[in-house]
């Protein structure tokens, strides 16, 4: 084979917002699969907020990417050659094979994708990690009841869009928070949320209060920062807060200025008997079958919709990840790497 592999490695660790210097594009020859291995061609690469955390050398729930190592990432790939039972040439698989155009794999952590169920790249979005995050975080921790008010930030994105739509399916009121009028309009008109409030608007806190006249029963936390400050006074007694992400803090280099809200949060947790529970999607691996069954059904019934934001080519991935952390994506952010051979 004469093709070359492209991969993007972590060249240096960012301080604050990542820059192009933190990434390096490398090329080498396509490797041949050995015994117990298969060769994968990457078709779609997922870009996700957690990647910013992996670029730091700091204690977390997962190991950082090493300097010079391939950037971590989920991808949908086609099997080009296989020396593994259970995987054949032409199979479509999803797994954490990283920012590269080809990968060798021993099959661990890979799942077959059924191309007849939905477009294959949905295995990175609504039918993949972000969709499962929304499903498990909302239903296992948020536990919305009919008539309750569910609020979610980053509401037009991969996780938030699914949270609000499942809340509606469960009979709750869904209120989104998103950046800018275009995203807010999409969340209400296309996704069917009851309202969506622009966190960039000057009257954000007052508009959120007006959209939640009966307070908030479930706040699905994706963002933190100023958005959470507006949410906190509106939480009802016994409100549940799945803490899924804090994207407003991912590029922070110091504690945000302003009053220390920790005493206020602890007082509200006590007096309102709040449930505040952080989670990582793999805490709920046992729910994967239920997730795929329910969300695939809702998708086929048209009760869940999704939007993709696609960039072309591996070399565009650094720019797109930097943009994701600024709120520039509109929908699930994906990199199209190559067409399938069929
Ligand atoms: N716990 C887990 O296992 C798990 C798994 C997957 C994802 N997550 C978390 O879930 C959250 C959403 O992820 P996603 O993949 O669905 O991303 P996404 O919503 O598709 O994209 C990120 C969005 O975050 C919003 N944002 C960025 N900076 C912000 C800021 N400073 N203040 C307010 N909003 C900001 C932007 O939307 P707007 O323009 O609308 O503000 C941006 O488009 C992230 O925090 C992520 O880390 C957690």
Question: What would you note in describing this structure?
Answer:
With 342 residues, this protein is an alpha/beta fold. The chain is 25% helix and 25% strand. The two termini are 19 Å apart. The model has no long low-confidence stretch (mean pLDDT 96). The site of NADP nicotinamide-adenine-dinucleotide phosphate has 31 residues, from helix 2, helix 3, helix 6 and strand 15.
Please describe the topology of this protein:
Layout: E1 4-10, E2 23-29, E3 38-46, H1 50-54, E4 75-82, E5 92-95, E6 102-105, E7 111-112, H2 129-142, E8 149-153, H3 158-169, E9 173-178, H4 181-189, E10 195-198, H5 204-211, E11 216-220, H6 225-231, E12 235-243, H7 262-271, E13 275-278, H8 288-300, E14 308-312, H9 317-324, E15 332-336
Parallel strand pairs: 8-9, 8-11, 9-10, 11-12, 12-13, 14-15
Antiparallel strand pairs: 1-2, 3-4, 3-6, 3-15, 4-5, 5-7
Helix pairs in contact: 2-3, 2-8
